[in-house]
Amino acid sequence: MEMSVFDIFKQLESGRTPEPSGAAEYIICGLGNPGTQYENTRHNIGFMTVDTLCEKYKLSCKKVRFKSLTCDAVIGGRRCLVMKPTTFMNNSGEAVTEAMSFYKIPPERTFIVFDDISLEPGRLRIRRKGSDGGHNGIKSIIYLSGSDAFPRIKMGVGAKPHPDYKLADWVLGHFKKEDGEKLEHCFQNAVACLELMVQGKTDEAMNKYNS
Known about the structure:
Helix content: 25-40%
Low-confidence stretches: 1-6
Largest sheet: 7 strands, mixed
Distance between the termini: 42 Å
Structural class: alpha/beta
């Protein structure tokens, strides 16, 4: 049901972004693990990026759908489903492919944000498609969707401090205090990337923000 002009004005007066009418055209998904014990950990940088997006657009990503916490939004003039899967990282594909199937959204319009240990905190890298790179969340999405052609934003979390350090302990650990300012800047850049990407300006986003 489309919103009336009166409803839109009410939402504007409340300070909230007007909710979109019609079906979602794009998916914006940040990967992470649900639960307070995982908040602000390296593996949850996808969730943290979505939280920054929601803060900017005054969204509440709390509606339970597609095994995720979700909200509908207009980003860059496009109707988007914003989601944070609650399946735990290794089963992220269950949530993402369910939403893709429901809205008939192809991989090319499904944007995934996730952690990357090959990049230092504060850096990000956009890719149009690619392998899982050893990331279990991406591996799950590729396996269940049957495609690796979904654009993604890799958010730097830094490499393990030494080879013997367990990878799981590293990505489930918290960022260093001194990373805070760099991360905040990176979150803002990632949101700017998503705004461009939904408008079909992925090349512009890559040229401007890839590091």
